Amino acid sequence: MKTERRIGILFLICATVSTFAIAQTRLEIRSPESVFGFVPGSDRQLIDYEQLVDYLLDLSAASDRIEMREVGTSPLGRTMYVAFISAPENLTRLDDLQKINRRLALDPAIPSEERVGLVRDGRVFVLATLSMHSGEVGPSQSLPIYAHRLATTEDPVVLTQLNDVVLMVVPCHNPDGMDMVVENYRKYVGTQYEGSTLPRVYHKYVGHDNNRDFVTLTQEDTRVIAALYSTEWYPQVMVEKHQMGSTGPRYYVPPNHDPIAENVDEGLWTWSAVFGSNLSRDLTADGLQGVASHWVFDDYWPGSTETSIYMGVISLLTEAASCRTATPIFVEPTELSVRGKGLAEYKKGVNLPDPWPGGKWSLGDIVALELSSIESILGTASRHRAEILEFRNDLCRKEVEKGRTEAPYYFVMPRKQRDPGELAALVQLLERHGIEVDRLTGEAVVGDHHFSSGDIVVRLSQPYRAFVKEVMESQRYPERHYTPNGELIRPYDITSWSLPLHMGVCSIQVDTRSEKLEALLAPVTGEDFSPDVTLPEKVWAIAYPSTSNQSYKTAFAALKAGLKVGRLTHPFGAKGDELPAGSFVILAGSASRDQIHRIADQASITPRVFESEITVAFMPVRLPRIGLVETYFHDMDAGWTRYLFDTYGIAYRVLHPEDFEGADLIGDFDVIVFPDASKDVLTKGKYKRFDRYVTSDYPPQFRQPISKKGFGKLTEFITGGGVVVSWGESTGLFTEGLPLPKDGDDSETLELPVRDVSEDLTEVSVPGAFLAVDFTPDQFLTWGMPQRGGAFSRGAPVFATSIPVLDTDRRVIAVYPERDLLLSGYLAGEKELQNRPVMVWVRAGKGQLVLFGFQPQFRGSTAATFKLVFNSLLLPPVK
Ligand SMILES: [Zn+2]
Q1: By CB count within 10 A, which of 3, 208, 578, 586 is most buried?
Q2: Which three-class secondary structure state does DSSP give residue 296?
Q3: Is the pTM higher than 0.90?
Q4: Distance 697 CA to ligand 1 centre (A)
């Protein structure tokens, strides 16, 4: 509500100011050069986010062809905008046009005469999101030029285009990152580090992975952008603007490469090809060489803003070749090469009709490509205005009809779940995506399935059917080959994003249509999932089941507030309604009812309340002091871990590799967390590319490794009683023994009874899939977990344990089962993974290590395994 009111006020101000500006004279419109002192795209010059937005705000005040609207806030608090650029007549009726968009996108039953009118009156909305990856500065830097050009042009062709099309430009998808990169560039310009990469993630948390968040919508900026296409403006066309490497083609345009998502309607693929082919033609006609299509980037994986294609939007991707931020480079002709799908040689071909010959490459070249690109998209949208609007509504009709006539018909999620908090989160997420979610108002029997009142039903007969199907089912990678029986076309990114599996929510796919069930559906309301936290006058304790992630959130909040918290060592209560082992009991002690209430309010589930003392065995829980290791090497997994901890109210301190040597690890920490990070970066400050160590271009203070002395301190921390939690590649620090701190002799190590055997498993290929995992029951670490569950795996590491020697020990906490490993995604070489340990607890002296072979918090999307991380943080000391 707040946002709407603010937008209203802003709109009023804009309207007043622009009327005033028109009354003055067109001369009020200032060129980018006159404002910034240089033409954007000039060598070694960048504008920052504030300059960009201020320029556009001034432009919108002076021109009746531009209107800026606030649309939300970035994770670090910067205001995000959309610049609407169109003919004045369209901008004055923007809200009416928005209503037309909504009708065409969501109403499958518009009477034909009315539809003719909507198509006649409607305009094509093209949403462009610029520079989400902040090192890829070109798209945002180019905006002032084309905004100014579109505001001032008298070219009748362009004026016709502005009449047909409303361009919605997000000036920068990632304002926080833009300012970080520009500041870093300005700091080092003129030094040897000019143009070097920003040493850290260019975002509050996730850096480059902001492009991987459009199914789970965890980040604030992702939510702002997703809402624009899914629930607010319903643009018919969307383009996401990026940059790529420096030594291949100059500009990438659709159509993308195989495989493509099978749930997406064929019409969307052909429309994106129309836009893409026109881009190729127009850019080449403008004399811009090196345009490539049908290469590298596939259209199978959702996650970027292109996810909008599952919601009926013609979604496009462009990628310009990079220079060094704003510093020009020279590319030798012999350095030009291509690899990946679609192009095997850097030669003239149908996917690269006019190869660029090499030479100087600068930000100005990128800006020129962006200007031509946006003109081309505007032209295509204008030429096909009516067809595109009709197509959008045809698609809506088609998807709704498919949902009525083609299985699956529904996904039903029983109300009773192991983790009811995740069911609530999943429903909320679907609603955020604009999905209609219902609940059953009575019992229903469909085939062998008996559903109860309150169960959640997601119908397939809705406009965003393709999205519902894609995120609710489990994935099967569409295997396509370059030649018959030849090489498989490898996935571009991960291959599993099934929300029920990743979140640990039970969901049943129903392939039989039932009118009886449909008659019992009512939309879910906010009250369906609001927890009951009414407390009696007197409270002895409140309790939360170990099966719910939300329970951990309240436990951490209670510990932080100084309350006593314990975990049940055995199940408690009547069968069917029992609190399982590991459940949290938060003792009220001397806390007031209000204080208890505030803690209970942290969670989205209802607590069990005990008015008087119960006799039950529980172990005390301490608030752990956590160190979280993050390198400067754009460490996205550490960023995601910070995000997870912040979301669950878990306090931590970031430790950089160079901090180990001087830190008082034993005095300051109980637990040190090593998220997935390269062992080479951690121990050498370098990364490996094709078996060769590469020194990054960061200034030296950002590429310090954990020194030998630092590592010795880590060993002391562990053997002295500390806990190390590690997953992914960083487990390599511990699977080859711990270095023993001894002066003058660095060869001695403390052997741990665990090693990584993944290098021996040569057949295994898991680009990122959800695999079945068996968890060892009755272990502290698996409290709250099902015995058979699943985890997000990238295939390595895989462990083997051995009989312990000296003062060490080990327990296998999770193994891949003996068969049927693949739950969702792509997996090759299953046999080699069967029955292998994939999570191990190790003791060394008084210390403990928890090593994960899967990714327990992958991109904030795998709530099914968050509890394993939380349990690791809460491990009790070794007796
Ligand atoms: Zn990018």
Answers
A1: 586
A2: coil
A3: yes
A4: 19
